[in-house]
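HOLO CASE FILE
Compound: adenosine-5-diphosphoribose
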Amino acid sequence: MENLIEKAASKIKNSKLTIALTGAGISVESGIPPFRGKGSLWEKFDPMKYAEINYFLKNPNEVWEVFLKDFEKTLKKAKPNSGHKGLFELEKKGLLTTIITQNIDGLHQKAGSNDVIEFHGSFANFYCLECFERVDIQGLDLSQIPPKCKKCNGILRPDCVFFGEMIPQDALERASMLASQCEVVIVIGTSALVQPAASIPVVAKTSKAFVIEINPEPTPLSDSIADITLLGEAGSVITDLLIELETF
Ligand code: APR
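Model generated. Tokens follow.
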């Protein structure tokens, strides 16, 4: 592992444009369970019910009561961990330009990162299904479920991308452009199973970028797309990379 860290650090050091793609795994050390794997959210809740747009629109009360209410409580308590903070350190050193995240927890921004593309939207904001009035998470009143719009009493929904919805166009375009132009992409904490996010490292690879994967377990990227797979938890591996970069 030692020389893999050295090789990864050297690639990052010499790269003119480095981006990161992050998934739920980087927030596990902040107390947010991943979606897949043991103890994960989709082991307990059927994503085709509780994270699918048509089911939500037909059953907003149930989806809020069974899933969204507790998910919001988990997110509200979560703080950035050494993985999020380490990526901000890389940004401060001029070694990381943009984070493309599949996460909706806002922890990269809370860690200080300035250029974060929220590929699956965000749980920081909500809007009314009837009049589209927006409210941020601080203004969300969960004393009644589902939460209602103060303006028209319509039901509120999170501003994140449900299964069955499109990725925000600006996020898709910017992420695709960066994937095709970057020299290094660091892929952290994603099972690389959900499209189109999982194509970002593939586009980067096709455009001759060097792909560094950080994950305790191998993923579909590990053999074919990743040039280096650093098997470990995001917090400790990113910390090791920063230590190695200090030696340059
Ligand atoms: N550090 C790094 N990676 C970790 C850690 C950790 N401490 N713990 C777990 N992982 C890895 C797991 O091995 C797994 O590969 O994080 C990954 C989490 O995978 P998923 O739960 O599938 O999360 P993600 O890839 O982000 O899911 C993509 O699916 O349900 C949708 O919209 C949801 O954005 C999500 C998308």
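CASE NOTES: Residues 1-30+80-120+167-248 form a domain with the Rossmann fold fold (CATH 3.40.50.1220). The mean pLDDT is 96.
CLOSED: yes
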